[in-house]
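Entry type: protein chain
Record version: 2
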Amino acid sequence: MKKSLLAFALAAVMPISAAVAQDTIKVGLIVGETGPGASLGIPYKSTFAIMPETLGGLKVDIVMLDDATDATLAVKQARKLVEQDKVDLIFGSGNVPTAIAVSEVTNEAKVPQIALTPTPLKPDTSPWTFSIPQPMNVMSVPVVKHMKANGVKTVGFIGFTDSWGELVINNFKNVPGNDIKVVAEERYARNDTSVAGQILKILAAKPDAVLVGGSGTPAALPHTELRKRGYKGPIYHNPAVINKDFLRVGGQAVEGAMPQQARLSWPSSLMTATPSKPWRLISPNVTKTSTAKAASVHSRPTPGMPTWLQIRRCVPRQKKPSPVPKSSVTPSAMPSSRARKWSVYTVSTP
């Protein structure tokens, strides 16, 4: 795995040789600090705000921009980073639709992009984009296994109208051996304030369980509406709801929400948790911070830190020609999420 990580990081930073010669690395960061994806974007920004001021012994200049969780603005911000700020590398964005939008610019300009979301982009069409989070086909497996183990035969789905909603439901349907029938399939926009109509249709189908294809605080909307309408069945989510604002918005209504998560990502809060034992989403061990500057780093782990550490190890190697050609980097050479133990956990609100 170490070799795969190294190959990934080396390929990602290959174009920065000019910056190395100047002893400075210029990094661009695009996240949705505002808008419906703010509960995800703010932790990303906060993580980078407390990063070391050097990368592999070289000075780092980080330019942070907000895309307001809007794909059109994400493209504009990416062009600014490439054409005006002349960055060597771009991190972002923090939502699938905006990350895909950024990739159009980075691949055109041949600037490495480290996507902070599980984009569906392929190496042959987007060779300059690397997605750090585990892909949805990996994340969907434990959900199906958990449903089948608990007697779920039918499921209702409600998810975003964008590419994230499509990723969630399509990968769920394509899990090998999945014979669970989708009896209702509804969509809603990230900015919607009501999903009453969609929920009524799902309830009419009487599913054994409901799968929500949302992220951040907007994912709480269908969950709370389901409980408000008297739905008693299990409600499944994904790792993109694991943050404090999801609990703040959902309150007691999201008690028992079931997202899947890799145990490796939650060493403190999952130390004693098992898939059959509820665990508190917000644990003192996770949210505790040692400095005021780090206080806004939420409990949800972000890909920023491990990505930063891997690239930091490889930057000094750019002082010599890299033996790793970019063409050798494929999905199988990226950080292996398949090595993680994935399970579905039940959320217990504070």
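Comment: Confidence is low (pLDDT under 50) at residues 1-17, 264-301, 317-340.
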